[in-house]
Amino acid sequence: MSTLQELVRYCTDEHQLGVLLLTGEWGCGKTYLIDKDLTEALSKTHFIVRVSLLGIDSIDALNSAVRKQWLQVCTPFLGKLKSEAERVKSRGSMVTALANVMASLNPLGGSIASALVAVDPLDYIPLDPVVEDRHDEKTEKRVVLVFDDLDRSRLDLHSLVGTITEYCENKGFTTIVVAEEEFVKTARQADPAIYKMLKDKTIAHTVRCIPDYRKIIHDIIAQPKWEDPEYAEYLSKNEQGLYDIFVSGPVDPKSGVDKYHNFRSLACALQEFSRLYEIMKEQNIQNTDPYLFSFVAYILITRNGIRKNGRPCFDFEEEDIRKLYPGYSSEALPECIRMWIEYGIWDDAAIREFISSLS
Fold it and tell me: Which of residues 171, 193, 208 is at a domain's end?
């Protein structure tokens, strides 16, 4: 089964028990899979409520985020009211002003008005795991609650897992957790025995995200954001080469050295190379492919590092890049371009001089 089919099977199983963990390396398309593919696949029967745990530092904040997303997805009209209420509270309102005036005339009246302002009726709407379809009251949809970015949460792992379990087991939500599991186990310094205990108590199913690399890379290249139609056509002609750079495995699988596959970094690399392509086009440089492949490879490895024996590592040599990224050539990346990639320093004169030397 594909990753999507595994998720659909879990979400549509009426007798599923426990939480599903969707794991996979950063940038491999886990969130994209939830927001686009899973949402489309279950559009007639389910609402997908995804909550990012990034930056959330308390259980109260987490519960508030869940409520807000539930309102916006399942009851968009109420969600708008909730957002408007927050906006009014942050900027002040006529009701607040009235409460202040009443307080100056009648202390009791002012406190009553203030109490009314403080009460948000939307907070009393129960979060149900099954809700009516907003387009057809006779149809009910099940809510899939997705906790994304667990590996980037600032919450204590015990408290976080306990809260997620509460939504799944006691409140009846179909629940998915999205995380890079290896990072949770290593970077968060979780005791292996404790982590295994927490996982065994909470996670009933684990699915590794295995992306459709060819489809996603094609979609990145084919998206209509490129300002220059020639550049879009150029990328399209090099789609196979870019696929080979991104997907190919290590020369020696037993070496314990491998690369990460981050689609965000790939999209960013293609966007930034367009600046070099424009100059190359101005100066009528014909054979630009080696510079594209080398540029993309260098961005991928400098931003994501490499994997050594399963762990992230940024201590790599030129030889590592050549082994992991076919088509890479250090000669295609002079110091001026490396400075731009690594430190964001665009030396226009030096870059133009280098490109001019290629003709």
Answer: 208
Same domain as 56, residue 13: yes
Quote the domain boundaries for residue 311: 213-356
Among 33-42, 86-95, 146-155, 197-206, the range of highest mean pLDDT: 33-42
Evaluate if residue 48 carries a pLDDT over 60: yes
Stretch 175-187: mean pLDDT, rounded? 82
* Residues 293-303, mean pLDDT to the nearest whole number: 95
Query: What pLDDT, on a 0 to 100 scale, did the predictor assign at position 172?
Result: 93
CA separation for the pair 334, 349 (Å, rounded): 13
Give pTM, 2 decimals.
Answer: 0.74
The phi-psi region of residue 23 (left if phi > 0; otherwise alpha if psi is between -120 and 50; otherwise beta) is beta
Residues 27 and 135 in one domain: yes
Examine residue 23 and state whether it is found in any structural domain, yes or no. yes
52's CB contacts (< 8 A; 6+ apart) are: 65, 148, 149
pLDDT digits (tens, 9 = 90+) for 112-151: 545 444 545 556 677 899 988 766 667 889 999 999 998 8
Compute φ and ψ for 101, nearest 5 degrees. -65, -45
Within a domain: 251: yes
How many domains does one find in the chain?
Answer: 2
The single residue listed with the structure tokens 């371009």 is: 337
Strands 311-313 and 136-148: unpaired
SS3 state at 176: strand
Q: Residue 82: CA atoms inside 13 Å, Cβ hemisphere, count? A: 20
Average pLDDT, the chain: 84
Give whole-number Cα distances, 309 to 120, 257, 327, in Å: 52, 6, 24
Q: Are residues 190 and 226 in the same domain?
A: no
**Residue-level pLDDT at 127:** 87
65 CB-contact burial (10 Å; exposed 0-12 / middle 13-18 / buried 19+): middle
d(CA 88, CA 154) in angstroms, rounded, equals 29
Verify that 244 and 328 share a domain, yes or no.
yes
What is the DSSP pairing of strand 311-313 with strand 306-308? Answer: antiparallel
Contact residues for 59 (Cβ-Cβ < 8 A; gap 6+) = 155, 159, 163
Q: How many CB atoms lie within 10 A of CB 344?
A: 7
